[in-house]
Amino acid sequence: MIGPDAALQLMQSYGLLLLAPVAILEGPIVTVIAGYLAHLGVFSIYAAFVVVVLADLVGDLMLYWLGRSGINWLSPRWRARLGLSDERLTSLCDHFSQRGGRTLVVAKLTHSLGLVALVAAGVSRMAVLPFLWYNLLATLPKSLFFLIVGYTLGYAYRQVNAYIFWLSLVPLAIALIFGIHWYLRRRVKE
Question: Would you state the pLDDT for residue 42?
Fold first, then answer.
């Protein structure tokens, strides 16, 4: 992927034209850098906000479609290896039909769990419009937060990138602990 220094140089050179594709690929640190460049006057913070929100939604939609169509590419053998039995897929569909919005918002705000939830929403065949709506609800404050961080602390974007990385590991670790606990409890019951 593109490092923060390269993203800064590319966006400084090409402006908003390059912000969208880089934001699709890299996420929060690009939004921080966009806020910093807006502070430097390279482009408008309002335009940057619109571009990073749209780029985030496009990236989310790409992961959704990967889940929606990718499940069909897997052979039954690989589905079994990944634990994607018909029973689990039905359970996943039920979860996203009942609590899909909440799951997407929480996963997007934790950053590290977003990828799994976005693909799972596609696998569960969650309707596209509600999927986009809930992602928009989570993307607006998240993008605004990272733009403000960039606008005020963007000169320290390398340190901000490190903080984003380490802080995103916390919800991932919590999810892993709960997942292992759930798995072990289930194993004991069997």
Answer: 83
